[in-house]
C-alpha cells in the first residue's frame, strides 16, 4: 500500500464524502510544482483552481504571512487593522473604482456573492438575473444563482426571484431585465462551465440594460480577477464600469479571503451599519496575504506575463494539429483545451500519471489555470507531453 492509499482510506472514513475520493494526497509545493506523499512531483497547471496566483511557497507571500502571523492573525471586525485598510485601498485602486467606492471583506467566493445578493435586495427589488452555466458558489443563496441542476436540485426550494438566461444571448438578456430586477450577476468568463467567454459586447449590453432599468450590474470576478485574464479584472477589457464585483480565489494566493467591491457612493450606501457582517472577514492575516499577492503581481509584471503565457499556450497547443484537439478557449491563464471526444477525465488521469495536474472541467474540455508565475518552458513541457497523452486515450469499447 502506498502512503497515498493509506491516507486516502483514512480520508474516506473521516472526511465527509462531498468531494468523492481525491486522486492524491499532496504534501507540499514549490513554485509551480507540488509533491504527493509518495514523493512524486507534478507540474501544477490548475493552481488550486485559480487560487495559487504566486504558485507555492513564494517568498513574498510566505514572509508577509509569517510576519503578520507573529503580529496578529485575527482581531474580529469589532476593530480594524492597518493591513485591512491597506488592502481595501489597494483593491479599489486596481479595480479603478470611482470615488465613494467601498470594500466588504468575506472569507470565500460564495460569501462575497452572498454579500452581493444582500446588496441587490437593498435596491428594494427581489429579482436577480443570472446566466445558464453560471457558477457562483455552494451556500444556499449563491446556489440560487448557480445554474447546474445537480448542485441545485437536492436543495430546493432555493432563494426565489432568480432567473437564468442563456449565457451570451443578447435578446434573452434584454427580455429578462425589467422593473423587478435588482441585479444582473454575470461572470465575464464562465470558468466552471468550461471557460466560456461572454465577450465584451455582452458585458456592455448588460451595463446598458441594467442602467436603463435601474438595476445593479454585479460581475463575478472570483475566478477571472486578480490578473488571471491578463488585466487585474476581466471587466476592464470590456470598458464597462460595473456596480459591484466579487473577488476571492486568487486574492489571498491560497489564504482564504473574499471581497465585494461596491462602485460609487450610491451603491456603496445600500448596505449600512448592522446590515451585514463576518467574524473572520478581512482579518489581518488574510489582508496581509492579499497585499503581498497584489504587490507581487505588480512588481513581477504578472499581468502582462499572464496574457503572454496564455497566448503562448494557446498557440503551442493549436500548432500540435492533433485530431483530438478542437481548440483552446479563454483568456490569459484561464484556458480550456477543447477535445473532439469526451475523454477529458481520461486525459487528466494519464496527465497526472505523467506528472501534470490539469482539470477535466467538462467531458470534452481540460481547464488550465496555472499559477501566474508559470514559465513558458513549464507550459511547453506539458504541450510536448500532450500528444502522447491524447494518443493513449482509448474508446470505451477498446478497454477491457
Ligand atoms: C469558485 C467560484 C465561486 C465560489 O467561490 P468559493 O470560494 O468556492 O465559495 C464563485 N464564483 C465563481 C466565478 C467561482 O469561480
From TrEMBL:
The modification N6-(pyridoxal phosphate)lysine is found at residue 249. PROSITE patterns: AA_TRANSFER_CLASS_3. N(2)-acetyl-L-ornithine binds at residues 138, 278. Its EC number is 2.6.1.11. It catalyses: N(2)-acetyl-L-ornithine + 2-oxoglutarate = N-acetyl-L-glutamate 5-semialdehyde + L-glutamate. It is an enzyme of class 2 (transferase). Binds 1 pyridoxal phosphate per subunit. SUPFAM superfamilies: PLP-dependent transferases (SSF53383). Belongs to the class-III pyridoxal-phosphate-dependent aminotransferase family. ArgD subfamily. Homodimer. This is Acetylornithine aminotransferase. It comes from Pedococcus ginsenosidimutans. The lineage of its organism: Bacteria, Bacillati, Actinomycetota, Actinomycetes, Micrococcales.
